[in-house]
Amino acid sequence: MVLPKAELHLHIEGTLEPELAFELAERNGVELPWAGTEALREAYRFQDLQSFLNLYYELMAVLRTERDFEDLADAYLARAAAQGVRHAEIFFDPQAHIARGVGMGTVVEGLWRALGRSREHHGVSTRLIMCFLRDESAESAMATLEEAKPYLDRITGVGLDSAEVGHPPAKFRAVYEAAAELGLRRVAHAGEEGPPAYIAEALDVLGVERIDHGLRCMEDPALVERLVRERVPLTLCPLSNVRLRAVDTLADHPLPAMLDAGLMCTVNSDDPAYFGGYAGDNFDAVRRVLGLSQERLRELARNSFLASFLEDEEELRAR
Ligand code: ADE
Ligand code: ZN
User: Fold this and answer.
1) Beta bridge partners of 213
2) What is the Cα–Cα distance from 110 to 279, expressed in whole angstroms?
3) Per-domain residue ranges of the chain
């Protein structure tokens, strides 16, 4: 049986499969620099986070209309449901679209067309988390939060993503304070490529409830102890870590050591169209390659619901 799980670390733009990208390019009259889906897949050889981000932002050029965002989200939800995902907390990157002349309304309304009917169509409940691009300015993040105000009934929380090193969490103190005042939940990527200090800073300065990735906490035993004590959920993405070379091979992934240390780990797909697998594929890979027991896999699935922003007891029990 497929293990029911929640997905807590998923960039909707990272679910853009080459086939859909070419379909949308045709629909919107966008010229792509790759000859076809095979040539595009060939380009998915990344050296690090930045080399991936360059392609990820480039391919977004095909996303232009509400219908494009709806189709993108629908395709993800269908695939996720087939792999046992019952609840998905979905990141989106509005600044990457606004910079191309695609407005906040187009993105949120388009995604919402798919998310609003996801429970009936796919059996997947959803939440939307708006991410700020950390390699853009703090002022741009604040302007983005301002633009999101008409849509806050659809947005559960804020996150922080894009190029990590050199862009510490504290840069976004003011916008996270403003988000908290608006009642938004808070998460942030930290410790993917950046140092363990960014993880502590995201907790202390931004007040985040979860850390996205958090892989590099293992370099700081005192930080591990704190994360265990405070039961801070980490949204790990094992196949992403291999493709972006945060680890040499999946066999070297610290997930078993992290679980043994008592960390509250979850397993997620990050950008599944680029990294070779959706949530269930990530679970399968860690079972096969890291030899995780059924009990450990169940713990990961249980953690995913406990660490989610599902609030309703009913809703949680129903999962
Ligand atoms: N945006 C999309 N995927 C990301 C990742 N793995 N890290 C940081 N920013 C991202
Ligand atoms: Zn991510």
Assistant:
1) 190
2) 23
3) 5-308
**Pairing, β 5-11 against β 85-92:** parallel
C-alpha–C-alpha distance, residues 119 and 280, integer Å? 19
Cα separation, 308 vs 89, in Å, equals: 8
Catalytic (active site) residue 109: no
Atom 8, ligand 1: residue with shortest CA distance: 162
Instruction: Return the number of other C-beta atoms located less than 10 Å from residue 101's C-beta.
Output: 8
CATH architecture assignment, domain 5-308: Alpha-Beta Barrel (3.20)
Q: Complex ipTM above 0.90?
A: yes
Give a three-class secondary structure readout of 35-100. Answer: CCHHHHHHCCCCCCHHHHHHHHHHHHHHCCCHHHHHHHHHHHHHHHHHCCEEEEEEEECHHHHHCC
Could you read off the pLDDT of 103-120 as tens digits, one per residue? 999 999 999 999 999 999
Binding-site residues, ligand 1, Cβ < 6 A: 11, 14, 49, 56, 161-162, 189, 192, 240, 270-271
Q: What pLDDT score does 316 carry? A: 62
pTM (two decimals) = 0.98
DSSP string, 195-234: -HHHHHHHHHTT--SEEEE-GGGGG-HHHHHHHHHTT-EE
Residue of 192, 201, 295, 313 marked catalytic? 192
Kindly report the protein residue whose alpha carbon is nearest to atom 6 of ligand 1. Answer: 270
Note whether 88 and 49 are within 8 A (CB): no
pLDDT digits (tens, 9 = 90+) for 17-49: 999 999 999 999 999 999 999 999 999 999 999
